Amino acid sequence: MQIDTIMQQSAQAFDTYKQVKPAERATFLETIAAEIEKQREILVETAGKETNLPAARLNGEITRTTNQLKLFAELIKEGSWVDAVIDTARPDNTPPRPDIRRMLLPVGPVVVFGASNFPFAFSTAGGDTASVLAAGATVVIKGHPAHPRTSLLVFTAMQKAIAAAGMPEHTVQHVADVALGKDLVLHPLTTGVGFTGSLQGGKALMGYATERESPIPVFAEMSSINPVVFFPDALQTQAPQLAQTFAASITLGIGQFCTNPGLLIAIQSEALENFLQLLGTAIAASTPQKMLHSGIQQAYVKGRADMLAQVTLVSETAAPAADEAWPALGRVTGAEFLKNHSLKEELFGPYSLVVTCKDKAELIAVLKSLKGQLTTTVVGTETDTTQWQDIIALQATLAGRIILNQPPTGVEVCAAMVHGGPFPATSDQRFTSVGTSAIKRWVRPVCFQNFPDHLLPDALKKDNPQGIWRTVDNQLTK
Ligand code: NAP
After folding, report:
1. How far apart are CA 234 and CA 31, in angstroms?
2. Beta partners for 86?
3. What pLDDT is attached to residue 280?
């Protein structure tokens, strides 16, 4: 089908869907979750064949995906997310103040690119799509070519939910043709884009979006090496446990997580050497595995060889089969790291680089040399966190999420989550792609001035029919 037809259909569906009451939209999201649940077995089987991911992981991801849909349903039923602000008229002011009311309203058709590394949670009915539909916008999904049959099965479940919940037929559409991504972004009816993938891909989409006659936002989550700083007292007192925890995090899902800890930083010491020996042993004991698709596998094999040519190898697993990825740990000094910018790039896969700094000044220089990140982690005892507060404050400027004494892999879907960060982690650090705040990417504030009650959306009406929290004349009230 022509892109133009798809986008016209999406715009037409938007005209109706944006008027659907929040409670009905919530039921629609819950119905999508239920339809996906009905297909769980075949979805796990199909995705397993397409992505090499194990059934336990895929089952967990389906649960995460359906919970995500239900969480957005709860959010829109409760309703206050629309951020309704009412400044009532003050006719006695000089000059008189008119009645002014503001809330968030959906932008229009959105294009979502499915991600390769999360066939459910960041793909067809994943977080981007759930947040678009919760906001009241329509969506055109570009399925990822690495799991086409999985994507189509999920879309079929969504179509059943559309029919069962009585939503406009084209509220959700799905395209899979490899040549279509650019055209979808360029189409004049597209109002926003959600993307998770490579820096190269994200930047290309950002380029198309600004090239348009009317530029649109691209919310791209792209590249992060998630620096972890290990402080001296923690290394001295907790090395064995830290080695196990971080080896597991580096090799989890054969390193195919955007929150993979790709950079480990510490000041040189005997305790650090002891920790690296334990970490190296744990990495060497991990198991090589197949990656998501041959493109990612080849990129890892080449990137790994390039990286290891520039650093000292600490450890690696035994040689794998030809189509498996090979976990590895490298090391460089702070001085070498500061000189060599290619060491700061993401290598997607089970590889991590240790940077040993000669002193605090070099540690600060290393942190300041880094680009924007999704996460940064502090590994320290209470003694450390008291002594190194300035370093922790510096870390907080780097990333959307700063973590204390836990590995960065694992992203909770909740209201407080920030899965975002300064470029190149994402294209817009003011937003998150995980958690209920992700809905804010697909709305804009609209102000109604001097409107009578019957012409206003429910959230702004005088008698508050939804019963939501609003700010009325500067007071938060129901
Ligand atoms: P990708 O190459 O960025 O592709 C993701 C999606 O974007 C695909 O649907 C692709 O469509 C589309 N796309 C990419 N470049 C495009 C362009 N110039 N114009 C239009 N559409 C474009 O990501 P991937 O296939 O998932 O993996 C490749 C690499 O991305 C990995 O090796 C890894 O380095 C990185 N990655 C990072 C993360 C992360 O979370 N940081 C996640 C996954 C992957 P087509 O295939 O149709 O071109």
Report:
1. 48
2. 101, 472
3. 97
| Residue to probe by mutation, ligand 1, list 111, 186, 198, most atoms within 8 Å of CB | 198
Ligand 1 atom, smallest distance to 224 CA: 41
The rounded Å distance from CA 195 to ligand 1 centre is 9
Exposure string of 116-151, with b = 16+ CB inside 10 Å and e = fewer, is bbbbbbbbbbbbbbbbbbbbbbbbbbbbbebbeebb
Ligand 1, pocket residues at CB < 6 Å: 113, 115-117, 142, 144-145, 178, 181-182, 196-198, 201, 204, 221-223, 258, 295-296, 299, 348
Which segments of the chain have a pLDDT < 70?
A: 178
Active site residues: 221, 258
325 Cα–ligand 1 center, Å? 19
Identify the pLDDT of residue 177: 76
Q: What is the pLDDT of residue 178?
A: 67
Model pTM score: 0.96
> Tell me: the pLDDT tens digits for 328-366?
999 999 999 999 999 999 999 999 999 999 999 999 999
